[in-house]
Amino acid sequence: MLQWFRTLSLRNKLVLTILICLVLPSIISMNVSNLFTRDAVRSQVADSAKQSMRIASQIVTGQLKNMVYMMNFIQFDVELRKQILMLGHVDDTTTIGDIFQAKLSINNRITTVNDTLGNMNVTLLLPNGQYVASYTTINFDPKSFLEKEWMKEVNQVTGYKVHWIGTEPNYNSESKQPYLLAAAKPLGLNGTTYGYVIVGLELNALQDLFAQYKENETMVIIDEKGRVLVDKDSSHIGTQFANYDQLPSEEGSSFVKVAGEEYIMQSNQITPNWKLVNMTPYKAAAQQIESFRKTDFLIQLFFLILFALVLLYVVRTLTKPIAKLVQTVVRIESGQLSERSNISGGDEVGRLGYVFDRMIDRIELTLFENKREQELKRKAELAMLQAQINPHFLFNVLNSIRLKIMMKGDEENAELISSLSALLRMTINRNNEYITLHEEIGINEHYVRLLNSRHGDRVVLRVSAASDTLLIQIPRFLLQPLIENAYIHGLKSKAGEITIISRLVEDGRLQVEVQDSGVGMTPERLLELRNHLEASPIMPVAEEGSSPSLSGIGIHNVFERLRMIYGHYFDYSIESSLGHGTQIILLFPQQPEKEV
């Protein structure tokens, strides 16, 4: 496989590599996405089911709250309580008209509230056998409630609690609903029960709500024993909920399998004994998300194929000039330097072809010029050898003159010639960038001797160098520009003293000082000089009456050289006052290799 890949052309390698880099990540990304988003999808489906469950729970709870509100209204409304108490004390002396008037008043007040809350059958039952019902009682005697088994549990209800009875056969003959959802509570006053209120909720509103869910989706209300209280199919009411044993232990959701199909089961406690239960097929709930993902995959696949076709065309267009350029290179390699690719264009390949052709032109020109240059070089080397003066010959002649003068007894002039020879030798020999401090001081001693001979003034050079500093390497011609500056500007080219002091400071750096006994500077001039030396880049300042130094560099260039060599390890200071001379202090590392 690898050998086959190597035999492919650059174009085919490029196309194959790009296609692999496009398709392979897409396949891996799809599988990884399926793996990592599986839990996310389940969570999203569960959240969606929870939201639907929350809405249904709010509606169901609202209906139950209406039932509680109706019972509380009957219990706590003052005017209604008076009428109920009066009806509860009916005896043989009470006329039928008074009884009818009391029942009518109670019924009207209950009906007013019932019309705003919904379709509920309200029964007010009194211990003396009197009752008030919001429904027709032609075929039903409300006093039969007193014989129900659940009435014992109603009598045990205390405070403001309600006994949720469950599903009862509909006792309203005018209703088509076979069942009612019933609840009851005793009416008490001062620890004495003076009546019972029983509320039956028509199931049509709840069944219409549950019917909105799909056929394979279940929404029911069950009691604590798992019996179905409300279902969209009335035939299921009163039966045992098939998946009661798989309910979550607490309120929430869980994934269960029923007949090989996975469901999301949710439960919500709507009363102390009743639960609202919802079962949604996971596949159906996730269908919309899976459909979205499938559509996304198809869109990606479409654009991948489209991009691959465009890529094949672009690669073919781009690599065609490269193939032509390769053919040109092969012909040039065979010796045909006149060949050119003639590739043009504004892109990189076009510029490459143009630059390649110009490169071949320059190679031809370079070969011609190289041949001619070799001839000129040989002629220049011959001329240079003919014009060259051997410095050693010059130093030997000066030493011969010095010996002849010494033989005649003129030792002073012989020493001057010796100093001149040493200074010229150091100036001409630029092979070494660094010399020892001892050698640098010796050169400046020769320099001061020549100054005294030239100007006739006696400049005394004093040296106070610590012995452990004499062999430290320093840059060549470091002190000569400072000595010359001290002589010209400090001593004003007159007699005086110049002192060189060296020592090692606590941090191991070398400190070199150059002092003169000259006229010094005013504070203004000293400040101007310091500001100038801090300027970057430092350029020499033309001073009135100044002369160029022997080495061709000045004090400013000395500072610049030290900054370049030692960087921030180099420090300096300049002190001066009128009539007390000038002191320049240089501070830098001992060895050149420590430069920054």
Question: Can you walk me through this structure?
Answer:
It is found in: Cell membrane. Its main location: membrane. By secondary structure, the protein is α+β, with helices and mostly antiparallel strands. 51% of the residues lie in helices and 19% in strands. The chain is built from 14 helices and 17 strands. It has helices spanning 2-7, 10-76, 78-88, 96-117, 150-155, 204-211, 282-333, 348-387, 391-407, 411-428, 437-455, 480-490, 523-534, 555-566; strands spanning 120-125, 131-133, 163-169, 179-189, 192-202, 218-222, 228-230, 252-258, 261-269, 275-281, 434-436, 459-465, 473-475, 496-504, 510-516, 571-576, 582-588. Strand 9 and strand 10 (275-281) form a beta hairpin. The relative contact order is 0.05. Residues 382-390 and 537-553 have low confidence and may be disordered.
The helicity comes to 40-55%
Mean of all residue-level pLDDT scores: 80
**Structural class based on helices, strands and sheet pairing:** alpha+beta
* Shape, principal axes of CA atoms: elongated
Number of helices: 14
Q: Got a strand count?
A: 17
Largest sheet: 5 strands, antiparallel
Tell me the radius of gyration.
57 Å
